[in-house]
Specification:
alpha+beta, Ubiquitin-like (UB roll), 5-stranded mixed sheet, 28% helix, Mopterin_synth/thiamin_S_b, Sulfur carrier protein ThiS, ThiS/MoaD-like, Beta-grasp_dom_sf
């Protein structure tokens, strides 16, 4: 378990009710996302369609998250 900073954008921020928080989670992105959903159940549907960045790089759920990492949760954006 390690502390990880999560930053929520757009609909993810609305679902979480915060723009940023620190969670203590397991070693993988999936563990971090599962912890976020546990803390904020409204995130479940949003996380299912989000892109996830770790230190600015797009990653999948199976990527290891080093301690102190910033994980950004970005839902799909509409616009044009």
């Amino acid at each position: 378990m390690r502390p990880v900073t999560l930053r929520y954008w757009a609909g993810a921020r609305a679902a979480a009710g915060v723009s940023e928080e620190t969670l203590v989670a397991g070693p993988l992105v999936g563990d971090v996302l599962d912890g976020a959903v546990e803390a904020h159940p409204a995130l479940r549907e949003v996380v299912a369609v989000c892109s996830v960045l770790v230190d600015g790089r797009s990653v999948g759920r199976d990527v290891e998250v080093p301690e102190g990492t910033v994980v950004e949760v970005l839902p799909p954006f509409a616009g044009g």
